[in-house]
# Entry
Amino acid sequence: MKKNSLLLLFLTSTILIKAQNSGLVTDNNNQPIEGVNVLLVDQNLLLETNSEGIFFIDEDIEDNSNIQFFKFGHTTQVLKYNSSEKMKVVLKKLHVELDEVGIVEIHNNLGNNKLTNIEKISLNNNFLKNNSLIEGVDKIIGVDMISSGLGIQKVVVRGLSGMRIVTYLNGMQINNQQWANDHGIGFTDLGIGDVELIKGSSALKYGSEAIGGLLYFKDNPFINSHKPKVYLTTKFDNSSFLNRSQFGVKMNKNGIYFNFDVENTISSDYRLPDGTYFYNSRFKQNAIKISLGDRNNIIRFQIHNEITGIPGHVCEGDPAKENLNSLISNDIDWTNAYIERRPTQYISNRLLTYKTSYFKNNMKFDLFFGHFINKLKELEKVTVPAFDLELENNLISPNIKYEYNDFTFNLGVQANQIKNKNLINSRLVPDANSLNIGTYFIIDYLKSNFGINTGLRYDNKELELVDETQDFENIDYKKTFNSTSYSAGLYYKLLEHHFRVSYSGAYRAPHFSELFSNGVHHGTNRFEIGDAELGIEYANQLDFKYQWSNEHFGIVINPFSQYI
# Structure
């Protein structure tokens, strides 16, 4: 019986090795590590090691696919899959974690973090740790937020915000009237696994207009288990009597992967540090998210709705003469604590994306399509909206990535069309269209302890006013903006000392809100006047980073200089 068992084990192992559908993860003492996350990056598929440190792949994956191995408290490794070799990975035990601020070996959608200043943090436990998505993001050094309670929050990167910070969700640029401080980010942490951040103007692949920084949010990957994985989480927070609930299902059936997530959130007015309540900072949110894919194709659909109060609002008169005590209350009236009050924002976002990938030896081809619609209505009085906007954003982006020895080449194009339309005659910003086409080429060289990064991007943006109402019918505006963006960086490692320096430059064309705004924006208590003569805004940044660490202690120094 014992011989038969050994023979069966040998035959099974031989089959696994031949098929190259298994691997082993150990520590530096050759002990197996259980619960290591094994992420097939290019397939967006998450595996996990068992009690013997072994992980299994049900089907062959393409050679040169990236595989990331991660477990908290251990080093992270990214390896290239080779079907002719048996995979054995060693993760060293750590006593200090510097993943949020250090140079670690980890895969990033935004590029190589050894050569570019990319920060990455996990948002898997953000629901439990924080009351909003932005509260989790501002844990990154150099990131802050503008907030009017939990319902309206915006990211600030090194002092810059608004149109200078570009946000992506699963490859799609999110445009949700972010020119105003009373317009939030437009989605929650539902189903999101992590966020990457480039500080400054180095995001050539995802747009030149991110002169202050670029945020890239990415959903949790699919799972390889044939058993459905279900979660239900709910929380209550007494600072604003917030109730949040999320539910999700992940499953795999015959190589077809499916993720489903849904959320409902309700909150009363936000409690200030002195115990008073910020009147009308209450909000409601609900969202649904569906992802469906196989090894080379992913389609995602998302709906996000908000009803958000606008606090600190003055409908008439001079805001400077307003008694601030009228904007706060000493207690909560439970009979109407969650009932909407004027002024109010009604937000509805729809996002549909599709991505397909093709592998051939050392080449990877990606093609991305994205469609995003943002509807924003602000009601100042009972039934009459101050403005009612619909913004449509369409994005097409092909990319070719080729690896040769120690070089990586990225060549791609982005075509981004934006249409802004008013649904009523009253308007703060006009009907306008823009079409931005950008081409980029990026080269990375990384060998042992030395690396070089350089890239160029050329953009051509056409912006046209198409509003025929009385306020804009006599304005003939159609203008083209074009410029070149660039980035270059050096990386060097000497023993445990990491050095990186980068220099980048980018531009931002004016937004139609900056060109043509003309009216009272009650949400920010100001009268906004645009300037049709505005030109290109240029930005240059010099960034240096030094890191040293051992098993118990670490130092990071990151000075920068930015000129706009």
